[in-house]
Write a structure and sequence with these properties.
heterodimer, A: mainly alpha, 2 domains, about 80% helix, B: mainly alpha
Chain lengths: ~120, ~240
């Protein structure tokens, strides 16, 4: 039962997220609003984490499996990929490297900057 | 007469969601086993091998993606609840996050801007169509959110989904090498950069390196999905990418 209760809770939050996105015309996807709502609930009632934990570790532990059906969707775009394979593959490779490197550098740089300002740090 | 029988079985199987769903799980569990057997070699990322195997299977049996997806959608659907579940690592790491909220926020906002613009700019420079450019813009956002953003800005959601997966794989494969080359040793920095760029697939990889890198990667994936969905449509319209 714990697993079923946990999945039910996650689905209720997703549903609430989807409904409020549509009601309020928010520019954010429903599951993201559901995530924010669950996060706020947990901040208020921390003990609820035990109720959702079983499903989350099952889902997040095998997160990569969930991407497989979407990945197989490449098959639908073989034509476009055939015509635009060069810009697509160069973009994916370069932009991924650039984004990852810049994010890491900025985080490292700001961390050092704030650590220097704080007392008791080297 | 064996052949008509096999035929009938195939007609049944190809019309039922059972085959697509089972194939997805079988392909993934074999791919995962292969990955573990290889000593977790990032090139044998289970998403790469299972997606390749499934595409070859669909081509060999002349099965359409729609028929396959009738079954696979049950797995795909779980991306929604999985996105909601990201609130949990976020909550559990909240104390750690509070201490580093400034570097994390600055890094993620920069990452969103750089990620979106580098992909649109490089694709445009190399002559990709506008639809392709827009489908590439949310390539670092976890699939369900990335697809929703793509639809909103005029990309092709199913193309975005596939590009999201490839981006995740690239990041998971090159991440550790890149961080070594750059001399970055802090697991929280590595995790943030990994989750920002390569969402869930990168996070799965990060958890193998350390629990701390995994938690920060999950955090970056959740926060960047939120930032992308709020800022990307706006960023693209003020910079004139969206006419």
């Amino acid at each position: 039962m714990p697993l079923i209760n946990a999945i039910t809770l996650l689905l209720i939050y997703q549903l609430a997220g989807e409904v409020s996105v549509r009601l309020l015309g928010l520019p954010v996807p429903g599951p993201v609003v559901g995530m924010v709502m669950l996060f706020i609930t947990l901040m208020i009632r921390g003990q609820m984490v035990k109720a959702v934990e079983p499903a989350s570790s099952a889902l997040l532990g095998h997160l990569s499996l969930l991407f497989v059906p979407a990945g197989v969707g490449l098959i639908v775009h073989f034509n476009r990929l055939g015509n635009e394979w060069l810009p697509i593959s160069v973009t994916l490779l370069l932009s991924t490297i650039i984004t990852m490197a810049v994010t890491a550098l900025v985080m490292q740089w700001v961390t050092r900057l704030t650590a220097r300002q704080a007392p008791n740090n080297d | 007469m064996i052949e008509p029988d096999l035929n009938r079985i195939w007609v049944y199987l190809s019309a039922s969601p059972l085959l697509g769903l089972t194939m997805t799980l079988v392909a993934y569990s074999l791919a995962h086993r292969l990955y573990l057997r290889s000593g977790s070699n990032p090139v044998l990322n289970p998403v790469v091998t299972s997606v390749t195997a499934l595409i070859l299977f669909l081509l060999a049996t002349d099965t359409s993606y729609d028929d396959y997806f009738d079954g696979a959608q049950f797995v795909h659907f779980l991306l929604g609840p999985a996105t909601v579940a990201l609130a949990i690592p976020l909550y559990q790491q909240f104390n750690k996050l509070k201490q580093v909220w400034l570097p994390v926020t600055v890094a993620l906002v920069t990452g969103v801007v750089v990620g979106a613009f580098s992909s649109v700019a490089i694709a445009r420079l190399l002559g990709a169509s506008l639809e392709t450019q827009l489908s590439l813009a949310p390539k670092s956002v976890t699939a369900p959110v990335g697809m929703a953003i793509s639809e909103q800005i005029g990309g092709l959601p199913s193309l975005t989904a596939a590009l999201v997966v490839v981006t995740g794989i690239i990041g998971a494969v090159i991440g550790s090498k890149l961080f070594d080359l750059m001399g970055i040793r802090d697991d929280s920095v590595k995790g943030i950069a990994m989750g920002m760029t390569s969402h869930g697939i990168g996070t799965a990889r990060a958890f193998q390196v350390s629990a701390q890198m995994g938690a920060f990667s999950g955090l970056a994936m959740a926060l960047s999905a939120f930032l992308y969905s709020v800022f990307l449509p706006w960023l693209l319209s003020i910079t004139g990418v969206l006419g």
